[in-house]
Amino acid sequence: MKLEHYIGGAHVPSVSGATFATLEPATNTEYATVAAGDAQDVEAAVAAARTAFTEGPWPRMPAAERAAVLRRIGAAIESRDDRIAAIECRDTGLPITQARGQAHRAAQNFRFFADVITTLGENVYRVASAQLNYVVRKPVGVAGLITPWNTPFMLETWKLAPALAAGCPVVLKPAEWSPLSAGLLPEIMEEAGLPTGVFNIVHGIGEEAGAALVAHPDVPVISFTGETGTGQIIMRSAAAHLKTLSMELGGKSPLVVFDDADLERALDAAVFGVFSLNGERCTASSRVLVQDTIYDTFVARLAERAARVRVGSPDDPATELGALIHPEHYARVMDYVRVGMEEGARLVAGGEPPTGLPGGNFLSATVFADVTPEMRIFQEEIFGPVVCVTPFSTEEEAVRLANATRYGLAAYLWTNDLRRTHRMTQVIEAGMLWVNSQNVRDLRTPFGGVKASGLGREGGHHSIDVYTESHIVHVATEDLPIPRFGVA
Ligand code: NDP
């Protein structure tokens, strides 16, 4: 299998001819060769997108016409649901049932932003001193979209849909470890009738292709999802051109369980929250904080449930936990398991590859109990099926522990005490909180984190804000008195 860049409506190899190989996480065998782009390929893609911006119809098209194209993109995705899910499952190691859910969400992203762009108004301010001020939203220009390897297709479309809805041509740099599903986007865009040059892909290594995109002066906006450290590098480079940045970064999200909660449901949410999507999920509830009165019981039940999570071949519909993305990432996750044991945390489930699955990046659902805030496994994002459990006794201690990392993406609170709920939601440092619920998203609501988990929000009109500039026009409706300088 061979995958090339898609620039100005054509599939092209790298100017340098360079390629890289991708591995199948379930077996670690190579199965595709992908063009490895560098600054020259990025230059060509940005030039194509720039022409589409300055000369093409897309940025000037009425919102309703753009929305019609977006809806056709949604339909084209839907008609390929099974193919997208199968490719994604093979390329990422995600269980097939979960890959299907992600493909479904990708189609929804386009339909949703078609609705957003057709219902979004612009503001008018009537000023008492006989002025009418109105705001015009304009697409910013070429948008650079840089995405990570977990749930690649869904995250790519989460950026593509609003950028295109806003009228921006785009250059997408997919993740190097899971580039394959993006390979379906050119035919999807063509089938939907997106004008040539509006959608471009440059594959490649982040430090080369991604860095060149960030550094390019004709790309005024970068939307990035990935690690906090990469986000910091991108901010430094983007500062040279004062680019608009949207940063969705790492997390170490707490799930806090009080003894008055519905413990059965809290347990379901804790297991789902950290072991779905292979634990390779930015909003994973990777720290479970449990009130001391129920701690021993909860830990025992969590361990029991984790031991029963079905680890298996990603393409088996019965599999709940598939193969981690890459041997390098797998080694990193396994190293955290070793660190956890060395730090004195109590391993109560998993910690080892399951038997009978040789060759792939498999790890049983892993639970560490008695984890303390100084431990690295409490502080650092593991991004795998590993959960840390920590006891607390009071509400104040729960808040302190919840806030005790540098991250602030999501938090999950399980309690039936109404007043406590509202006290805690005010002081937990997280961009998104769920109360007595697992992670369920409505696409209208702001998505993003605080502290080291990100900058800015996407979702609903927040995404459109990223890809548009507001121009304010001030019009005098009567002769206003003008201070007369230089007449004396
Ligand atoms: P990385 O930060 O390693 O990579 C993300 C993307 O950035 C990849 O396409 C990567 O290319 C590229 N990249 C790497 N270096 C540079 C650079 N110097 N300049 C420009 N681009 C670069 O993240 P991962 O792919 O490892 O994804 C996992 C991370 O993503 C986790 O921290 C996770 O929490 C976070 N994430 C956050 C989400 C959120 O919404 N907050 C959602 C999902 C994930 P390459 O593939 O070649 O490395």
TrEMBL record:
Residue stretches in coiled coil: none
Gene3D superfamilies membership: Aldehyde Dehydrogenase, Chain A, domain 1 (3.40.605.10), Aldehyde Dehydrogenase, Chain A, domain 2 (3.40.309.10)
Signal sequence interval, chain numbering: none
Aldehyde dehydrogenase domain mapped to chain residues: 15-472
SUPFAM superfamilies: ALDH-like (SSF53720)
UniProt entry keywords in alphabetical sequence: NAD, Oxidoreductase
InterPro entries: Ald_DH/histidinol_DH, Ald_DH_C, Ald_DH_CS_CYS, Ald_DH_CS_GLU, Ald_DH_N, Aldehyde_DH_dom, DH_HpaE
Pfam families: Aldedh
Active site: E248
Cross-referenced PANTHER family: 2-AMINOMUCONIC SEMIALDEHYDE DEHYDROGENASE
Family membership noted in the UniProt record: Belongs to the aldehyde dehydrogenase family.
This protein's name: 5-carboxymethyl-2-hydroxymuconate semialdehyde dehydrogenase
Encoding gene (name): hpaE
